[in-house]
Amino acid sequence: MTSSDFGAVYVSDKCGSVIYSHVCQALFLKGAPVIGLLESWCIRNSKSIHGIKPTLAVVYFNTGVDADEYLRIKAEVAAKAGIDFIPYELAPNASTDGVLHLISTLNKCSQTHGILVQRPLPIQISEKDVMGSISRRKHVEERLQGQPSNIAVDGVVRLLASYRKADMLDLSIVLLGGTNIITPGFKAELKKRYPRIEMFKTPEEAKLVNRDGVIVMTELNKGGIIQPEMLGPGVESEGI
């Protein structure tokens, strides 16, 4: 099961004596309906309060095409949500201290209401230090309706619930890898909500074949993770 931002494959599930077999089905879960509802909510709730319009600061690294695409997407999302968008460019060879200085400035800025940092960060920058330095009130990835939470986990739950598949998250969850969506915050929030979680760096470590009652979540950008024998005889997989 997949959306444009998130990949998840449902293998099978077992609930007591009742067994639900899904091995001969492959479902493509589109996130557009859920996104539409979220955009509508944002538009209704993002109107200026006391003359102040919400403003999102986006910190990015000038790495070329990737950075351009990242900014384009964030600008479109901000426009649809009815909020202002201000990009802050840093060089690819920026230091951790340099990024921390910018984050500190944005934390103190009363005109900045949310902060987003492009990930994955350049290898020389400490992601833990940078992400941990963002004000909890302005950390848009880790804030939901005014409360600490991870928005990517919320997105997964909303997507599955919209297809009446939320009970899948009661299975054993296997996380493979992680970059800009399956982040440490994502993993921590998911584990807090659903304790039956295993984390691996590679599919080989996870030993996924012939495992029942497992949902696989991955951002590994390579084929071969999901194999035909994991889905059953009624499903043909190509380049998954």
UniProtKB/TrEMBL annotation:
This is Bifunctional protein FolD. Keywords: Hydrolase, Multifunctional enzyme, NADP, Oxidoreductase. It comes from the Eukaryota. The keyword Oxidoreductase applies. GO terms for molecular function: methenyltetrahydrofolate cyclohydrolase activity; methylenetetrahydrofolate dehydrogenase (NADP+) activity. It comes from Colletotrichum fructicola (strain Nara gc5) (Anthracnose fungus). Pathway: One-carbon metabolism; tetrahydrofolate interconversion. SUPFAM superfamilies: Aminoacid dehydrogenase-like, N-terminal domain. GO terms for cellular component: cytosol. Residues 50-141 form the Tetrahydrofolate dehydrogenase/cyclohydrolase catalytic domain. GO terms for biological process: tetrahydrofolate interconversion.
